[in-house]
Design goal:
The chain is an all-alpha fold. The chain contains 10 helices and no strands.
Length: 265
């Protein structure tokens, strides 16, 4: 009975996948399943596994690259060489460095993500001091803000990329916490702020809501209904009044008299 294979070797489609990444996974698959030059000296098994894992479009491409030879007759290492030459772009040192130095931190990109993306851009730059170049571009390419200002004030002889990332993230977290605390305090102040009670208290003398009875001009007025001093006819407790205006001719006379004597409240 054949033993089970370890790991999963997915299909490779050059339209959607990176050959360099897939080649690394292929190597790990062979290691996990003890397939190497010792037990597969001719490379026949490795070639069969690789070709069977290619998508239809990628298989046709590999066959075209192998012409005039038939793909199944090309050694495994030669097939790898054909795919390497086709999928691996030629690197120009200054072009790679231009991409590195032109990179800037994107909106929504965390400081850790920004540092990781920069490190990937150094792969073909050939820097003699990669860490120093990474630190410098990390700081200079950051989005404007307090984090960048603080890093610019640091001693360059003591600042490493790791320290720069840590400091930037600490400042960002502190700012976020302070902003949240300030927002919470504003809500508390708004909740504790006393509301104008005069806007909610209905005057028993005239019926309006913008003042108290003690401040009303009509608190000394004599009601024409009950002849009691202290309220207008429409606020008389002995009748059902309509708050928006007078109910009958007496209400109209009352309102006219009030307007003539005292003016609007």
């Amino acid at each position: 009975m054949a033993s089970a294979n370890f790991g999963i070797l997915a299909t490779f489609d050059h339209y959607v996948q990176s050959w360099s990444s897939y080649k690394g996974r292929l190597k790990q698959y062979f290691i996990a399943n003890d397939i190497d030059g010792t037990n597969d000296a001719t490379g026949t098994k490795r070639r069969a596994i690789l070709l069977s894992a290619l998508s239809e479009g990628t298989f046709k491409l590999a066959a075209d690259l192998a012409l005039p030879k038939q793909l199944d007759s090309v050694p495994y290492e030669d097939i790898l060489g054909l795919l390497d030459n086709h999928f691996t772009p030629k690197r120009v040192g200054f072009g790679e460095r231009h991409n590195f130095f032109a990179a800037i931190q994107q909106a929504g990109e965390s400081h850790a993500q920004w540092a990781a993306r920069l490190r990937g851009l150094t792969a073909h730059c050939g820097f003699s001091n990669v860490e120093e170049a990474l630190r410098d571009r990390f700081v200079m390419g950051m989005r404007p803000g307090l984090e960048k200002e603080k890093l610019y004030a640091q001693n360059i002889a003591e600042l490493t990329l790791a320290k720069a990332v840590e400091l930037a993230e600490s400042i960002q977290c502190a700012r976020a916490g302070a902003a949240a605390a300030n927002t919470s305090e504003l809500f508390k102040i708004a909740e504790q702020k006393p509301k104008d009670s005069s806007a909610r208290v209905k005057c028993a003398a005239c019926g309006y809501n913008n003042h108290k009875v003690s401040e009303c001009r009509f608190s000394n007025f004599v009601c024409k209904k009950c002849k009691v001093k202290g309220h207008l006819r429409r606020m008389c407790p002995k009748i059902n009044y309509v708050e928006a205006g007078p109910r009958d001719e007496g209400d109209a006379d009352d309102a006219t008299t009030v307007t003539f004597v005292c003016g609007p409240c």
